[in-house]
UniProtKB/TrEMBL annotation:
Zn(2+) binds at residues 19, 21, 208, 300. It catalyses: 2'-deoxyadenosine + H2O + H(+) = 2'-deoxyinosine + NH4(+); adenosine + H2O + H(+) = inosine + NH4(+). GO terms for cellular component: cytosol. The lineage of its organism: Bacteria, Bacillati, Actinomycetota, Actinomycetes, Nakamurellales. It is an enzyme of class 3 (hydrolase). GO terms for biological process: adenosine catabolic process; hypoxanthine salvage; inosine biosynthetic process; nucleotide metabolic process; purine ribonucleoside monophosphate biosynthetic process. It holds the Pfam family A_deaminase. This is Adenosine deaminase. Its cofactor is Zn(2+). Residues 14-354 form the Adenosine deaminase domain. Binds 1 zinc ion per subunit. It comes from the Bacteria. Catalyzes the hydrolytic deamination of adenosine and 2-deoxyadenosine. The active site is at 211 (proton donor).
Length: 363
């Protein structure tokens, strides 16, 4: 008999995470400790449990802009080399303990320079944290491969500079580029020079689109900017029509996204918090998965959403009746879409992911 799907058994399944923000995944206890060390007195709670509860409650505002405000506190304690190494190492260890075998962790270097750290030193600190966390995870019996994505903020004007950092460090653990921040009023086309540079350098990049804004942001990310993946992309469902009798009609953009196998980096709990979906049960991921879009499951911000890859997959299995085959499909989708060389992706699929799910199916 196959192993029953529970949170405990899903925790043992191999997982792939493409969309996880470093400054959105701090341990509450670490946040309190780092704040005490630097004299930061603005935290809204002084115990890990109360602080975690505050972040979760604040994130359930239904507004992407309000959701982004919670990062003021996490960024305040991530301004030194030591703090960046610690936070990154703990991130990698936490993901590995959750069964994540490959992760792309993203962060915006420009947000960690308030105490004078140069951008390249910020990147080096995070890479050192990845190395430390990977070693600690291995010592604890967990296998993980982690890379990082460098994020530029769409309301700022440093995207070309961040893109150049991606190329400078791409052989040292930087897998690609991302652009994030409030979508409304800040289209990705404002950063075309960065995207053109990355394409000339044969680099990978993803763009946050179709979360806080609709189809135009998805269209611009793909057709103007050339994104390899879409961060969230939830609003692609606005281009899908459900007719009486069950017939489904895809608009031109939705058909393009499906036909081209554009990966959708979906984060169900986060999408509910920001108002991009009304509930897990009503999340577009159910429809999109049934239509065989290249859907992936992600955490986005584990602190704000109070989630993990295990909790996201558990919630989806409960809402949509998914089994091990479905969870493997999401995981393989993500691994196929990773910013890793093809042979490395294939090895993880064939040597780690498929055998891991086969064991769970056999019971």
């Amino acid at each position: 008999m196959p192993t029953a799907l529970t949170a405990e058994t899903i925790a043992t399944a191999p997982k792939v995470l493409l969309h996880d923000h470093l400054d959105g995944g701090l341990r509450p206890a670490t946040l309190i400790d780092l704040a005490e060390r630097i004299g930061y007195r603005e935290l809204p709670a002084d115990t890990p449990a109360a602080l975690a509860r505050w972040f979760s409650e604040s994130a359930y505002s239904g507004s992407l802009e309000r959701y982004l405000e919670t990062f003021t506190h996490t960024l305040a304690v991530m301004q030194t080399r030591e703090s960046l190494i610690r936070v990154t190492s703990e991130c990698v260890q936490d993901l590995a303990a959750d069964g994540v075998v490959y992760a792309e962790i993203r962060f915006a270097p420009e947000l960690h320079t308030e105490q004078g750290l140069p951008l390249d030193d910020v990147v080096r600190a995070v890479l050192d944290g990845v190395a430390a966390g990977t070693a600690a995870a291995q010592a604890a019996g967990h296998r993980i491969r982690a890379t990082i994505l460098l994020t530029a903020m769409r309301h700022a004007a440093r995207s070309r500079e961040i893109a150049e950092l991606c190329i400078a460090f791409r052989d040292q653990g930087v897998a690609g580029f991302d652009i994030a921040g409030a979508e409304a009023g800040f289209p990705p086309t404002r950063h075309l020079d960065a995207f053109e540079y990355l394409r000339r350098e044969n680099a990978h990049f993803t763009i946050h689109a179709g979360e806080g804004f609709g189809l135009p942001s998805i269209w611009e990310a793909l057709q103007w900017c050339g994104a390899d993946r879409l961060g969230h992309g939830v609003r692609i469902v606005d281009d899908i029509t459900l007719h009486p009798g069950g017939r489904v009609e895809l608009g031109r953009l939705a058909a393009y996204v499906r036909d081209k196998r554009i990966p959708l980096e979906m984060a169900p709990t986060s999408n509910v918090q920001t108002g991009a979906a009304t509930s897990i049960a009503e999340h577009p991921i159910g429809l999109l998965a049934s239509l065989k879009f290249r859907v992936t499951v992600n955490t986005d911000n584990r602190l704000m959403s109070g989630c993990s890859m295990t909790s996201e997959m558990t919630a989806l299995s409960e809402a949509f009746g998914y089994g091990w085959d479905d969870l493997q499909w999401f995981t393989v989708n993500a691994m196929k879409s990773a910013f890793l060389p093809f042979d490395e992706r294939l090895a993880l699929i064939n040597e780690v992911i498929k055998p891991g799910y086969d064991r769970l199916r056999r019971g």
